[in-house]
Recover the amino acids of this structure.
């Protein structure tokens, strides 16, 4: 049976990279950048005044001149630069303005007294060359690489792209996703539920996780455990979506019909079963169209673990997103597991007095016990190996969001 790492490898080999589209900047929040972004101009693009105050030529003071300056003019941000006409003058300037020509220093408003058109410097006010001036090109030079393809566009990256003058950005297009629950026992929230029935919670959990991770094109369907219905609905979804995320119907029960129907529809099974708990019956395949199909086991803890452990990272990969930081956490208490499986154990996070986070095991009462997941942050991955992992053992953490 495959290890989780081998399953990752196979998924990565078979998932298609999504096409690129060019979107207006305002629609790019959370998208994955698919081009490099270079600086349009030096940053700052001019010697930028960094404080409200007066700009002057520092040599007028350091050369033993007076400390009172006639205010020649006022220059606000957005004004073209003025020129200082005499060393005994100064120009009133605002933060963000261009440093006027002939000036090399800014004295903040708090350090001067203005009276009858004259600015008098405080006795201890410093006048050094380039003080309170954010020099042109001191942050980045024109043409410098600012953002790399593969980055996710958050607020700072959007600001950088805007500063580079980009009205549109080339980003990964959003995949068309179908979330499909299966099972005759499942009933919608809001509908009457009988004693032998179960609420259809997985589909809601999967859709919300996908949306939280920035996927917007998410369809939702439910199919009964019926070969004909499965065949018809799955054929339709395979024709209209890039990725199908199914829950339920992939184990070995008589009504676990999903793998059989997918085979009838020529979806090539890449793997079925991973040596892990929970989530052993995980199924993955690829349709002739290139559509990828994840068959997640229906037990709600297995569904969420497999979604977070395999589907979300795979989708990020298909967007062309660079692999993020691997997060590891130390166990706050020993955990005993049964080899030879990899175990995923839900955890809460707790901070100690030194500000260090610890993963506090919150084991579930089996893979059906999703109520135990409330207030957990995610789960840790425990590789097959020793029976007991000691307190302080550092291992990979996966967060729900
Ligand atoms: P299955 O993988 O179809 O054998 O389902 C395993 C268990 O998960 C059964 O107890 C199902 O009732 C439950 N289950 C399957 N799908 C869902 C769902 N969408 N929401 C909640 N529970 C589910
Ligand atoms: Mg079922």
């Amino acid at each position: 049976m495959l290890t989780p790492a081998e399953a990752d490898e196979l998924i990565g080999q078979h998932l298609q990279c999504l096409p690129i589209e060019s979107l207006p900047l305002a629609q790019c929040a959370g998208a994955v950048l698919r081009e490099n972004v270079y600086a349009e101009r030096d940053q700052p693009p001019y010697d930028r005044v960094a404080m409200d105050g007066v700009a002057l030529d520092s040599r007028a003071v350091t050369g033993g001149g007076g400390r009172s300056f006639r205010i020649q003019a006022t220059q606000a941000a957005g004004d073209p630069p003025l020129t200082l006409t005499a060393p005994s003058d100064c120009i009133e300037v605002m933060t963000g303005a261009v440093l006027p020509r002939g000036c090399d220093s800014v004295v903040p408003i708090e350090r001067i007294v203005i009276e009858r058109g004259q600015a008098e410097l405080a006795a201890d006010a410093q006048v050094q060359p380039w003080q309170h001036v954010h020099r042109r090109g001191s942050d980045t030079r024109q043409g410098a690489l600012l953002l790399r393809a593969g980055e996710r566009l958050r607020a700072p990256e959007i600001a950088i792209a805007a500063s580079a003058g980009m009205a549109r950005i080339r980003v990964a297009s959003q995949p068309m996703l179908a979330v499909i629950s299966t099972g005759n026992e499942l009933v919608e929230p809001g509908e009457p539920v009988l004693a032998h029935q179960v609420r259809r919670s997985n589909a809601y959990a999967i859709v919300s996780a996908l949306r939280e991770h920035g996927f917007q094109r998410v369809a939702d369907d439910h199919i009964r455990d019926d070969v004909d219905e499965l065949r018809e609905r799955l054929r339709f979804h395979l024709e209209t979506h890039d990725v199908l995320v199914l829950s339920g119907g992939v184990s070995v029960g008589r009504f676990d019909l999903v793998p059989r129907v997918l085979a009838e529809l020529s979806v090539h099974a890449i793997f079925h079963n991973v040596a892990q708990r929970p989530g052993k019956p995980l199924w993955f395949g690829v349709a002739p169209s290139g559509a990828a199909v994840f068959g997640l086991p229906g037990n709600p803890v297995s569904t969420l673990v497999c979604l977070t452990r395999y589907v979300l990272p795979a989708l990020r990969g298909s967007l062309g997103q660079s692999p993020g930081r691997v997060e590891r956490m130390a166990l706050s208490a020993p955990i005993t597991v049964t080899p030879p499986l990899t175990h995923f154990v839900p955890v809460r996070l707790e901070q100690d007095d030194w500000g260090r986070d610890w993963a506090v095991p919150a084991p579930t009462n089996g893979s059906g016990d999703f109520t135990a997941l409330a207030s957990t942050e995610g789960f840790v991955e425990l590789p097959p190996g020793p029976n007991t992992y000691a307190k302080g053992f550092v291992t990979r953490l996966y967060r729900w969001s």
The chain is about 20% helix and 30% strand. Residues 182-183, 225, 248-249, 298 surround magnesium ion (ligand 2) (CB under 6 Å). The CA atoms of residues 55 and 91 lie 5 Å apart.
